[in-house]
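assembly run, all chains below
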Amino acid sequence: MNVVIMGCGRVGGLLATLLDEAGHNVTVLDIDPYSFRWLPANFKGNALVGDGTDEDSLRKAGIEQADAFVSVTQGDNRNVMAAQIAKDVFNVHKVVSRIYDPLREEMYHNLGLDTISPTKVSARMLMDVISGEGKE
Amino acid sequence: MYIVVVGGGKVGYYLSVALLSEGHEVLILEKDPEKCGAICEDLGSVVMRGDGCEARTLEDVGTERADLLIAVTDEDEDNLVACQVAKHKFNVPRTIARISNPRNEALFKKLGIDVTISSTNLILGHIEEELPINPLVHLLTLKDSNLELVEVKVPEDSPAVGKKLGDISLPSNSMVVMIIGKGSARVPTSETIVKPGAQIIAMTQTDVEQQLRAAFTG
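ok done. output:
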């Protein structure tokens, strides 16, 4: 599978590493080359400096051949904008975004984007642990 | 009209001054507390501190009864999201987004933003008009068609000088609607003679504008 990941922070870097280890063809895009330190030395994918909300950068990252696009930068708005470009301009089959703000996440989910709100997920997990229903 | 303005920078501030003076009800949303304070001092309580991309903030300021939301922050993606939230969550009938990257114009249209204002293109256009090297000036672009009104200045040494308008071959879908000469402007006929220094006002299409320019400048 060809995967383009926008944002090479802890999450983007780890996801890229896992996909790479699983044998997928990964390209990571970040505006700051310093962020590529999150990638392991044996990373076989591509790391490109570029803005995922810019169509040319996405083209350079191989979005036209991508089966999946993931946007995991720190900015919710950047993530949903890039996701909509991937989905509506480049017709990428699988598009997932991280959106911290639960309300925004819900809205974009209803608009047809695949979204994950870490805020909601971690609050629920913490709640489960505290109320004794967690796995630990 | 009730208008929500997202972004209290220079554009947001001066826009709100203009809207208020026309008697509209205006609410500015601005994240930066200092900017909020300055606007409040100048314009009164028409500003609230908050993120205009957040549904909760927009709800607090009664966005569901807004007739119009205008997003004029410095960030294109923030303007996009503010407009989308206004549209999909609060059914605001009309949204306007400022964009700095001209390439986002087509994208924003596709994503349902009613109107986009590209500040970069506007500034470029105005500078272009003042450049003596570019004899073609865009006067007006008709939205949602690729027709435009342009002005071409006929140089002294142009091969078009002295010819009848009817004898000059123009690209398809182009038409000269006015010729401005020394102190007079007229609607031309095919018999009108092109004089040096004349300003040709023509209707044309974006993709053939350079052919039109070439027809009058050589």
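Helices of chain A lie at 10-21, 55-60, 76-89, 102-110, 118-130.

DSSP finds five helices and six strands in chain A.

not gonna interpret more than that til we talk
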